[in-house]
Amino acid sequence: MKRSELTDTLEDAGLSPYQADAYVTVLELGAAPVTRVADASGVPDPRIYDVLRDLESAGYIETYEQESMYARANDLDEITDDLQSRANRLTAATEEIERRWNEPSVERSTVSIVTRFETVIKNADEFIRGAESQVNVSLGVDDFERLRDALREATERGVRVNLSIHTPDGSEEALPDPAELSDVCSEARHRRLPSPFAVIVDRTKTCFAPHAGSTNEYGVLVDDRTHTYVFHWYFLTTQWDTWEPIYSSIGDEPPIEYVDIRYCVRDVAPLLRDGATVRVRVEGADTETGADRVVEGPIAEVIVTGPEDATDAEVIASYGGQVAIVVETDDGPVEVGGWGAMIEAVEAHQITVVDID
User: At residue 151, does pLDDT exceed 80?
Assistant: First the structure.
């Protein structure tokens, strides 16, 4: 390190320019008369005694009498410990600045852009562990291993977990076997194309990152119903509905649980046309008050706006308009809608087909 760089660094550590210059001079000269220190440094003669006195008070040097006043550097341990402590604090501050820049608090913003995938997957793990009703996940095999414990805990709590998993080159050999999948999800599908990482939790939280081959490295963290609804549709139409199940714990006989009204309508509409009576229990929220509400009874009607044959469609993207059911309760008919329902009386969070007659 050049002398000028050393004095600049000492100034950064808190010394004045004169103090830094005088201290480096003392280090270079060893024990030397004060007058020689003044001559060898850039400190003016009238200032040299004050400067050395300040350095002595700070523990950098000591002065002593020997024919004239001399100065010499103190033991280096104390000085180097102080400088190392300052360096450590600066390093810690640098790391904290980087952390705060890369990991803005989700609580402070409904949508946050982050630069590290580690931030995305850490938040995904946290969101899944706090899930109450449903989790939709699209990921690769490696990321599945990292979230396996969180997914298993959610499944054990009764959370509906839909797992879309992709493998290198679409190979089935790398897929977990059905016994493994039964512990970590309600249903799994194999997407045979590279895909972004996406985790959507309880209709409100999303973690998203482009797939590994993307030229852009970033992540999106969402804590907002409206934005999450967009990611939900992305998941259903590209990561889920068009791919065949490789595992499912959901049977064809009641009770059959649905967390999306579209799948319920798709399955029960043909039954109703054939004259069957389908009884359901709907758990959701009153669209006027927001209060929890439970509705039970037979389905009297399904409502689907769009093409005339929409209720015959297998692809869920066909159900892009209003989708609702009318439940005949003891207090009269109640119209039930899905996520974000506004014109219906109830927003359904879970629909259970309890009986088909």
Answer: yes
